[in-house]
Amino acid sequence: MSKFCASCGEELKPDVKFCENCGALVEEKTKTTVAVEQVNNVQYEKHANQMAVIGFVMSIINLPVTFFTCCGAPIVGIPAIILCIIGLVRSKNYAGDGKGLAIAGIAISAVLILIFIVFIAFIEAIRPAFG
Length: 131
Ligand SMILES: [Zn+2]
Fold this sequence. Notes:
By secondary structure, the chain is mainly alpha-helical. Helices cover 69% and strands 3% of the residues. The chain folds into 2 domains: 1-44, no CATH class; 49-131, no CATH class.
């Protein structure tokens, strides 16, 4: 792979320190620079997957919330689904990372909200018997 001068665009011979055309210093990426770039990339990918992770965690939290309060199912579940959908959309840009979590989160929250709807319908159905 040939290199080119950053100043004038002249093709550079391997292992030269200065451009033969304009004399500009040939800047080579140091190991430290490359390492920092790699760390930044990893952090960016993690940041991109946070939506899926937070959405999934919220869906898991929604299990006891739904069990103990019932009405908490949509309160926690709807934001969880929204976060998971954002995570799912973003996962396409990051080699599918976080996709499984996002789908699992959507599935869990959808089931919990469905349980909530069925429970409310059931309460409404039996209420006249106590009214
Ligand atoms: Zn040059």
